Each structure stands twice: as structure tokens, then as C-alpha cells.
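Second attempt. The first submission of Tryptophan--tRNA ligase had a stray character pasted in from the spreadsheet, which I only caught after the job came back as garbage. Lesson logged: always re-copy from the clean sequence file. Corrected sequence (336 aa) follows.
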Amino acid sequence: MTYANRPTILTGDRTTGPLHLGHYVGSLRARVQLQHEAQQFLLLADTQALTDNVGRHRKVTENVIEVALDYLAVGIDPEKSTILIQSQVPELAELSQYLLNLVTVARLERNPTIKEEIRLRGFERDIPAGFLTYPVSQAADITAFRATHVPVGDDQLPMIEQTNELVRRFNHTVEQPVLVECQAVLSNVTRLPGIDGKAKMSKSLGNAITLSASPDEITKAVNDMYTDPCHLRVSDPGQVEGNVVFAFLDAFEPDVDKVSELKSHYRRGGLGDSVVKRMLDERLQSLIEPIRARRRELADDRGEVVSILRRGTMRAREAAALTLSQVKGALGLSYF
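This time the job returned cleanly.
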């Protein structure tokens, strides 16, 4: 693979469960396109997933293959994108160790993304050290592959900011431009709400639609979607803001004028929730059906999926080892 004068992309997902539509609009769609334009590394973040899944490690490791199947099913080409398993690239852990010396506990605790994740998990002060420091691990992932662009949701912007802080701090410390700063790549839909409308879509919160969802599961999820509680009769004017069905139509219906017309009709009254939900159900069914079929086909040959991961991980180790060698040299740790 040759990528002269092309940007380098690093992105990934924690292996705590199959991917869902939030992942799809958040960055998966972009990744499929970016693989034709850039050198792309897709990281299966099993090590990071272990930071808040003590005692549930089997779930984490089993989902490595599940997430890989999702990547391949949506159109990721392993000949154009490098898919790797985080735990199998020890250079990432070593780089994390060096970067940890450049950040304080107080700075990590101020990270808005970490603060929100701590609140959601109810950790309070019982925060696993690995979880608190996972922004540093993420920075190591990004810098090890010299990523210039990172597709993320808007909730991950503080992580990119912290990565660049560490890059500047390291380069200043060693007085050499060893590590590379990156920039976030936001999709048009930076965050998809859960079907309950109360939080971002998450499998652990039970408010997600997975990419392998059956037709019945999709229909049930759409029918359960939060709309406007004050829209009691078809004739009542309805509110579009905060209405999950319209949030999904914005994300998945390519006919923008059609969605705009639906919103106007809903606001003035005369358009029932059931009609809008039926339209959304049809759109999601047509989107997920080919992904589900491709995923089922790939799952029949898991040995090939493992081979893809092995090849990608070995390519990734070569790239990470080169960066690590430069880091150690700059720190004076190249003794032999």
C-alpha cells in the first residue's frame, strides 16, 4: 500500500459490544470513504475496554471479532485500511508509559469527556486508574501511527485537545518535533441520541439499534422512540426539537427537502407519529439489511476474519515500532 502525500487517519472502537447506528453516523460512514483518500488505521480497543470491565474480560475479548465483522460488513476494505487489535501492539503500552509522565492527575480529572463517563458509570472517587488515564492511552494510539486526522463525535473533542497537549509537551521536553499533532474530523451528525431520547446511543444503556439488528428489532426500536409527549392527537402541532424520530431522519434520510417538509407539516399539525415512524422504519430497514446480510456471510468464515486481524496488527506494529524508536531515542533510552 502506498500513501504518498495523503493524510493518516486513526480511529477505533472499544470492544464492549457490537457496533450500532450511533457509531455508523458518528464515524463509520466517514471511515469507509476515508480509506480511499488516506492511510487509515482502525483500532479495536480491547485494552481500553478492560479499564472499566473488570471481571467481564471475556465479553471484551469475544467482541473483538464482533466489531471486526461490523467494520467489514459496512465496507471497510482490509487491503485499504489496517485493522488492528490494541492489546497485540505492545508498543502502544510502552508509549503510554512515557506520555503518562507528562500529565497530572488533576488535568486528567478535568477532562470533560472523562468527567461525564465517570458520572455515567457512577464511579465517584472509586475510579479505576486505568480508566482515568485512558486519554493518555488514546494519545499513544494516535501518535504511534502519526495520525494527522481522527474521526470523532463531538463528545471526544476534549480527548483530541489533550492528545495535542501531550504532543506539544513531549516535543518541548525533548526539544525535537518527534510527535505529530492531529485534528478532529467531525461528521455531519456528531452525536445520535438513544431511542429513549435521554442520552447518546449506547448498547450498555439499552437504547441502541445495532448494525446486525433483525427486521423485528428495528421496527420495535422505531416504535419505542421518544417523540413529542404533547403531540397527543394527529391534529395537534408537534415539536421537532428533541424528537428522536426526526433526529434519526436528519441522520439517515438523504432527501433533505423531504425531511424539511415533514418537519413543517408536523409543526403545524396533521401528521401522526405513526406515519413518521413508518417512514423511518423503512429507511433503516433498507440501510441495515445489506449490512446484516454481509455480516452473516463473513461470520461463516471467522478464520479469515482472524487472519485479516493478524495481518493488520503486524503492519500496525511495524509503524508503531518506528515511532517508539524515535521517542526512545529522543529520551536517551536507546542504549544498544
